[in-house]
């Protein structure tokens, strides 16, 4: 199969490479969330957000959002926190949105060829607010507001660790022009 696009019975084109990259990022989110973690009384902080930021910076919008949501929810199921799977699926989908919106703006101006750039670095601020606010609300609804306040400090660690890993890996991938090589003509 030399052609990346496969025609289905309904006549729509499916880009096999894009679907594969989406699955790869969902798996990376799952593994770095479930297995690179810092335990806390009501859950854990992890390095998985870095893969969400990378996936959302590389993949076209809906695919980055899907990878983030599926990867985060699967990690909670695998790690033994099934009660968090649905809140995580929602929160992680929203974590990808700032990067998707940023990528749309960058593409409009023909500047979406890098992962690490000033606009994407600025998106670390709203995505951090989504993580902290989303888990604060979910924690409050599930365990009470006193527990949510008690956990609040740990929710800042997760996106902070994720941001540092994202910057390091993203800079390395930019050095080898990963984004242009992996999905030419498909990006956004």
In DSSP terms, counting alpha (H) and pi (I) runs of 4 or more, how many helices?
8
Biggest sheet, spatial arrangement of strands: 1-2
CATH topology group? Arp2/3 complex 21 kDa subunit ARPC3
Gyration radius, in Å: 17 Å
Q: Return the CATH architecture.
A: Orthogonal Bundle
- Please report the first level of CATH classification, the CATH class: Mainly Alpha
Q: What is the straight-line distance between the termini?
A: 24 Å
What general outline do the C-alpha atoms trace? globular
Mean pLDDT figure: 88
Order of helices and strands: EEHEEHHHHHHH
Low-confidence stretches: none
Brief sketch in words of this structure:
With 188 residues, the protein is mainly alpha-helical. It is 71% helix and 7% strand.
């Amino acid at each position: 199969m030399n052609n990346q696009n496969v025609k289905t019975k309904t006549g729509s084109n499916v880009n096999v490479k894009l679907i594969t990259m989406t699955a790869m990022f969902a798996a990376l989110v799952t593994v770095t969330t479930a297995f690179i973690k810092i335990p806390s009384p009501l859950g854990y902080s992890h390095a998985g957000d870095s893969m969400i930021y990378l996936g959302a910076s590389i993949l076209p919008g809906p695919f980055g959002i899907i990878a983030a949501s599926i990867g985060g929810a699967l990690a909670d199921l695998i790690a033994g926190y099934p009660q968090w799977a649905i809140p995580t699926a929602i929160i992680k989908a929203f974590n990808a949105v700032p990067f998707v919106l940023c990528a749309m703006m960058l593409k409009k101006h023909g500047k979406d060829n890098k992962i690490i750039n000033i606009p994407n670095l600025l998106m670390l601020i709203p995505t951090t607010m989504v993580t902290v606010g989303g888990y604060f609300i979910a924690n409050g609804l599930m365990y009470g507001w006193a527990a949510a306040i008690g956990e609040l400090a740990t929710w800042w660690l997760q996106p902070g660790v994720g941001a540092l890993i994202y910057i390091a890996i993203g800079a390395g991938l930019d050095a080898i022009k990963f984004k242009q090589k992996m999905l030419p003509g498909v990006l956004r």
